Amino acid sequence: MHDPAILRSMHRDRFHAEPVIFVAPGRVNLIGEHTDYAEGFVMPAAINFATLAGISPRTDGRIAIYSENYREEMVFEALPAKGNKGWTDYPLGVVSILTREGHKIPGFNLSIWSDVPLASGLSSSAALEVATALAVLSLVDATYPGPVLARLCQRAENEYVGANCGIMDQFISANGKENHSLLLDCRDLSFKLAPIPDHVALVIANTMVKHSVAGGDYPTRRRESEAACAVIASHRPGVPFLRDATLEDLDKWGNEMEPKSLMRARHVISEDLRTEAACEALLRGDMKELGRLMNEAHWSYSKDFEGSCAEADAMVELAQDLPGLIGARLTGGGFGGCTINLVEQKDAAAFAKSLAERYEARTGITPQIHICHASGGAHRLE
Ligand code: GLA
Fold first, then answer.
1. What DSSP string describes 277-321?
2. For residue 332, how far is its CA from the centre of ligand 1 (angstroms)?
3. Which of 149, 234, 263, 332 is 20 to 30 A from 346 in CA distance terms?
4. Does 212 have pLDDT greater than 70?
5. What long-range pairs does 360-366 form, CB within 8 A, spacing at least 24?
6. Looking at residue 81, what is its pLDDT?
7. C-alpha dihedral (153, 158, 162, 168), degrees to nearest 10
8. Going along 207-360, which residue ranges are E strands?
9. Looking at ligand 1, which residue's alpha carbon is closest to its atom 2?
10. Distance between Cα 183 and ligand 1 center (Å)
11. Atom of ligand 1 nearest to the CA of 168
12. Per-residue confidence at 251, pLDDT binned at 50, 70, 90?
């Protein structure tokens, strides 16, 4: 699928130079939604959709970036001081952060190709950032450990793109492992690998409703949940993040919170508990419990966090009685995008077909359904 030869010849034709090529995957999150910026737990896996970045240096100091997806080449005389709300903000943001880290980045040509579905909650942005970071660092012969690389890319998105995301997407793109999901502690970035058994397929169902982290709802939900945390912290100063709060805290002080804040916090606190439990279930091969936790997580995300939409709720509901389903939930930042369905491998093809038919009959929208597997993290190709 990810053929570096195509990117190489594209780069040669356009820029008359030989590129070095890097790949960074998108991701799916099995469970743990809107917990990362509360320093809690997430359990994502990198997937076999990825972004390729080919790079070669220039001598005139300019930055030229071509995206095959947007069929657009943009040339910058120098690094713009801030983003302009276009797709180039992601690669330029990475250059900006690396420059602030003290790297003297020369001019370069960058060619981008990606098959991570855009605006679908599968972290096309993080894949672009991480692939760019590896490519740009290669120009100055620098490398970083995966977790540090992820932090730099998250900063690019927070500080340059202006999207207030957490660490999950960049982390898994940089550190994913073939056939594994990873329980990440977003406080200290330590993680536990949880193998995904061979008999389980990751079936990703795109509602075709567009998702965006930069849009209004993500930061609103984040603010609402942080407001709940501030109420708890006013009584119990040891609670800087919802990671440190308990459901008992909500029983005690929930009445001092805005009702929406209380609901958001109930989702985040219970989601942390579910995510750790889900990892334990996966590690001991208890697929039934894993599925139960995923379903519970979906409805908490939908009802308490109000982070779903009618189409994603329908996609989850319609999957419930299909043969082979282990668990289904909306994955990623929310308000559209994809559901993740853990499905018995032997049933995956029939599951995908039936789910697509049911969803189209219910909503009138033709979904895209992909049978994926967990893949490795970002690296140099060839
Ligand atoms: C987006 C963000 C992540 C995370 C998820 C929700 O993907 O980029 O940092 O907050 O939403 O879990």
1. HHHHHHHTT-HHHHHHHHHHHHHIIIIIS----HHHHHHHHHHTT
2. 6
3. 332
4. no
5. 362/314, 362/318, 363/310, 363/311, 363/314, 365/207, 365/208, 365/209, 365/311, 366/208
6. 94
7. 70
8. 325-330, 338-344
9. 165
10. 15
11. 9
12. very high
Q: Which residues are catalytic?
A: 169
d(CA 246, CA 264): 13
Give me 361's structure tokens: 């009959």
Distance CA 150, CA 134 (A): 11
134 vs 379: CA distance, rounded Å: 8
Express each pLDDT in 273-330 by its tens digit.
999 999 999 999 999 999 999 999 999 999 999 999 999 999 999 999 999 999 999 9
Residue nearest to atom 8 of ligand 1 (CA): 165
Structure tokens at 86: 């276009």
Q: Per 3-state DSSP, what percentage of the chain is helix, strand, and coil (rounded to 5)?
A: 45, 20, 35
Query: Which residue in the block uniquely carries the two structure tokens 């139960």?
Result: 292
Pocket of ligand 1 (CB under 6 A): 33-34, 36-37, 165-166, 168-169, 213, 332-333
- Give the SS3 label for residue 29: strand
Query: E strand or H helix at 263, and its extent?
Result: helix 259-283
Separation of 288 CA from ligand 1 center, angstroms? 26
For 113, the token pair is: 């190709």
What's the rounded Cα separation, in Å, for the pair 130 and 354?
35
